[in-house]
Amino acid sequence: SLVVLFGATAGAYGAKLGSDERELILLVWQVVDLHSKKVGTLHKSLVKADNLDLSDQCREVSGLTPEGLGKAEPLDRVLQQFSQLVSSDLKVLGRSSYTLCSDGQLLIRQVLHPETSKKNFLLSDCFYSFYDLRKEFHTCYPSSAAVKDQTIKTMAEYLGLGTDEAEEDFGVWQVKTMVAIIFSMLSEGCNHVFTEPETVKYKYETGPWIKALSSFFFLCSSKSETVDNETVIRARGLPWQSSDQDIARFFKGLNIAKGGVALCLNSQGRRNGEALVRFVNSEQRDLALERHKHHMGSRYIEVYKATGEEFLKIAGGTSNEVAQFLSKENQVIIRMRGLPFTATQEDVLGFLGPECPVTGGKEGLLFVKYPDGRPTGDAFVLFSCEEYAQNALKKHKEILGKRYIELFRSTAAEVQQVLNRYMSTPLIPTLPTPIIPVIPPPYTIATGSIRDCVRLRGLPYTAGIDDILEFMGDATGDIKPHGVHMVLNQQGRPSGDAFIQMKSADKAFMVAQKCHKKTMKDRYVEVFQCSGEEMNFVLMGGTLNRSGLSPPPCKLPCLSPPAYAAFQTAAVIPAEAAALYQPQALLPTTRTPQASAAAPPTVTYYPAQAAQLYMNYTAYYPSPPVSPTTVGYIAAPPGAVAAAATATHTPILPQPGALVRMQGLPYNTGMKEILSFFQGYQYAPDDYNGLIQLSDQARSVLQAPKEWVCL
């Protein structure tokens, strides 16, 4: 038997059903006996939604009103009545089992499953298997329209069924017409058989995409395999504590591939609020895209297309150790972070205790290590059931040794991602290569109260200079040379802000009026007119908001250490060598015994490798957030300025072994402390020849008394 089911929500209708998260307000159904071709009673039930505000389309199509819905039963009661009435009708027809049949997949996958999941009650088993009438119709009549273009009306017209929609109530006509279509498919000319129903997975299957071959395990999601580009999406804006099960619940009703949720991590190994999700086919992926800006709790989640290559970069792995660890089926994975570097397997098992036994004992533990074997303080643990995992999570921030341990739910993809990240980490990382190795002519940043600048707020984090120029449109011709400044946060990442210097205050005003709340990459960007003084405050780490200006840390009293040098006049930039910049006074002059009102400007020297900068946009900025024109590393003594400005520099790349890296320095370490640390080692003038060749006059900068050297 079939139970023909039709429903409607308080929002969109037709192809957009369920895309706006509106609640179900109507269910209509009728039992059909496929053998005797008899039907049961047609039932129509209104559903009381939490929000009775109906869309205009809903009012027009359904004819329902908030007053009528206010007297209806809530969804859980209606579903109970549905089960009882269907059982009663089946008993009258002499049948005991049935399968749902709906017009397409939206009602069940995009409405019923997501809504019941949010309201925390379970659907009965009958809602996990159903026939899609559109697919069945196309199978029976291959010459009909494509499945995605089918509707109840087009199917009825194809068969020549003369039903008048206006004569019946909304929902009743749809069910009666669907029943008539089914009887036509069962006629002698067609003899259609309903054999392969659509299925909805009861739960998300964790673990890697593993294929067993003999006694070995191979990760099919390894970097050498491929994943269909039409099955992957990127979810953005996730709560940082969300797990793969939370994401699967967000996509409830859609079938995610086994191990198909890959949580993305940032450079520190922490979740960044994004995930890549792989579905079983492109049809499920397309339905997932309709959940763009649906809510997980109080947060809306952005859903975009992604590629199989992106998924493999996050979820793929080739480590036999990881494959063996994840080869056990249906395990709950917990990540432990902050373990003492001396912690052993016995220590971890003792920390977890007998109330949460680890699957396989020591074999259920996986310590994360650097390529040289040093521990990172992370580990993954397998548990055979949810109860044991919950007991382990209760130990979050308990003490092991002298450190508190953090415990989080994890996924197979996260295990692979963390292992891949740490195992591929070079022992001595280098600075990222600048995007364009260009050193333009000297320039200055304007200051003062003239409002000839604009601030862009809310930029996508992936936005670059080209995106900003495209966003500005025709106004790009009014931007001053080198007038685009990206603002980064203290971790050196895009903050979503940028400042642009315009040729005049009028031009800045026009841009602010024209581009305010204009869209860039699906995000609207706010554009405000501001002054050079306000821009400099933010570039130096201050804040600019409705409350006014808050000075940056370096503007506060007792600057320690003075990290950014001030520049007043133009300086020469030697070709391919140390960069000498001269932005106007963004900070007070570096405090030295010789400092005075008439003191000459300081000069900043950059090492040869770091000197290839693109003035508007570089891949690396020091913190706090600054424009690349405000960076100062080493302040030179006044007496060396003129000589250094005219000196000819011929940089020579350091020879192997010429550089050493210091890791773990205290945050307040200055140049004096570093030189003191190396006391006893010679750093005579000749020692610098292998790094940068300097003239005698310019070398005096590096030989300056230590009290002249500051960071």
UniProtKB/TrEMBL annotation:
Protein's GO biological process: mRNA processing; RNA splicing
Family, per entry: Belongs to the ESRP family.
Gene Ontology MF: a single term: RNA binding
Protein name per the record: Epithelial splicing regulatory protein 2
Keywords, sorted A to Z: mRNA processing, mRNA splicing, Nucleus, Repeat, RNA-binding
Subcellular localization(s) per the UniProt record: Nucleus
Main location: nucleus
Organism annotation: Thryothorus ludovicianus (Carolina wren)
Gene Ontology cellular component list: nucleus
Domain RRM: 332-412
